[in-house]
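Entry for the shared binder. Reason: the reviewer on the internal report wants the predicted structure included alongside the sequence.
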Amino acid sequence: MQISAVEIPSLAGQTEFAISAILVEDGQAVQQGQILAHLDSSGGGHQLISPQAGYVVGLRAAPGAAVHAGQILCYICPRPSIPASQTGILAEANNPTGIDASTVILFGGGGHGKITIDLIRAMGTYRILGIIDDGLPAGSSVMGVPVLGGAKDLPELYRRGVRLAVNTVGGIGNVAARLKIFEILEESGFICPALIHPSAVVERSAWVDAGVQIFAHAYVGSEARIGFGSVINTAGIVHHDCVLGKVVNISPGATLAGSVIVEDHAQIGMLATVNVKVTVGAGALLGNGCTVKADVPPGMRVRAGAIWPEPRQKPPQD
């Protein structure tokens, strides 16, 4: 039995994709024709299937990761493992486009950038080339990562084959700042991969879109859906059947019970708790430590430590 590569295809001119779901694990036995992963692009979806029966070897991608035509997702082999010398994953021979599929740049060198540097280093999947930040001098460094310049330098990085970028502007309290960075990166042609810390637990049935960042000790429950660019910070809990819209921020220690809906651009403060089947409207801001028991209208602010809806005052006793 031969070793077969599962390669990202070029489809109707589409060469860049995001992995929307991975249905197998490294070392898993598969059958010929079995679906391995789902790809999404601006031109639609596509399924990657196993070309033969065997075992998955060399799988290194995660849901939300950006991939390009010619990149090898994994190998189907006669045994659950083979010598690394036989795989050559992402070798130059399998990357004729000149696109650097293993390198990322970070846009933003502040506090959120620092924890993201540690997240990427813990993953071991990507190499950080450097930081783009208009507020930091080129040639300086953040946690050993060099500052490459500002937004004006993005076209040159793209020309050099860099395609992956991470939005490391947290935008807590000012979601417009984070949205602006996503716009700049999209206009410059960059793709934002999903990042998941090795200590986080993301159930296999959950759906994680591109640009999502899930930090240490977070939990994402069964059939939860995490929308593009959202952040689940340290020890955040997003339980079963929750749906997060685009660019939502779940702060450290916040907890969403089952079937919670958080609409686009909403922000959930530290240690806030949201009860089951509650909807948090677009752009709403929940303060630290609040308890939310009913739907929150779009754009509303729930103050820190409050209970929403606020308990009715009892009438004074005679």
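Summary line for the report: Residues 194-318 form a domain with the UDP N-Acetylglucosamine Acyltransferase; domain 1 fold (CATH 2.160.10.10).
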